[in-house]
Amino acid sequence: MAASNLVPGRRVEKHAEPGIQAIAFSGPSHQEWHLSATLPEGQSRKDLFGRVASWLRRTGVRIVSQEVFGLPYRAGAGLQEITAAFGEITWPVTWVENRDETAAPLCGMQVWGVSGLPVEPVMLEGAVLGSLFEDEGARYCRLGGLAPGETTRSPEDQTRAVFEQMDAALSAVDMGFEHVVRTWFFNRDILAWYGGFNAVRDRFFQEKQVFDGLMPASTGVGGRVPLGAALVAGLLAVKGKRQAVRAVAAPSPLQCPAKDYGSSFSRAVEVVTPGTRRLFISGTASIAPEGRTVHAGDAGAQVALTLDVVRAILESRGMGWNDVTRTVAYFKHVPDAPVFARLCAARGMPVLPAVVMNEDICREDLLFEIELDAIRPY
Prior knowledge:
Elements (H helix, E strand, L loop, with lengths): L1 E6 L2 E8 L2 E7 L4 E8 L6 H15 L2 E8 L7 H10 L6 E4 L11 E8 L4 E5 L2 E8 L3 E9 L8 H18 L7 E8 L2 H18 L9 E6 L8 E10 L5 E4 L18 E6 L2 E9 L14 H18 L7 E8 L6 H9 L7 E5 L9 E10 L1
Parallel strand pairs: 5-6, 11-12, 17-18
Antiparallel strand pairs: 1-2, 2-3, 3-4, 4-7, 5-7, 8-9, 9-10, 10-13, 11-13, 14-15, 15-16, 16-19, 17-19
Helix pairs in contact: 1-2, 3-4, 5-6
């Protein structure tokens, strides 16, 4: 166990055991946990679920959200396996399979949870769409596993249905899109309809006046999502209880705003609450300052540039790799995946709490994308 960023009443601790990395942020009234788990060679998915569930029971963590990456859903059997390991599911579960069914080693699970605070499910029409909890500074609503109810409609119509679900769930907890700081979209066959997706998002953001306020940080990548849906999505909303709470867009020192080439999201968003700064870095790839793809066909060079871009964003907010609490790295081609760990080690970076998976990126010539969160007491 290692502790860092010590501030009276607040600290960040890192815990590790085979296949599990956990970051614990301790505040005055509670602990917040960010857990990333991978599947060591020779273990099964049942082992993964059981290991994580056992770890959470030992530490008394209440789950806020859970993401399963890279494992086959098996027509709903996946949720049955989670229920068997964790008990009744009262939190949002986002399940995304790999692009290539042979990418079995590229899989894992991430869990966000708290101890010392109650967590309430966010319900809509009898289904659990999210979780809600609050600390001394803010209320946090995490939605996940959002999918359209009717999968025979066009991808664009399904996208609209998902945005309407988001809006209804937020309204149910007295929030709105003005409180959304982060979104996630996993789009089946993303390269075939990413333009249509962006058009739907733009129209919705115009209706909700998002462009007049904060554009959320976001990830939009490919994803083989369950039950034939065009996409599965999630979001995080933060509503301050004091004037000291604020959320601001954090630009990328090495890249142009994504809006310059038609994507409506912020490169990163920083959320400041009493005593804590959180940074949510959007899905980031090998894109030049003017918006074009760099190093087409060279996965190693794309990873290297992307790490430079992310490091610059972190440093612009007074943070570094040691402040990272959660990472997901996406590779278009399975054989390229080892490049990530190799380059991180070559740069002397700490071992990041990361899950690596195999997905399409939003441009044909992009081979790699990474997203991450960071936290620092002050």
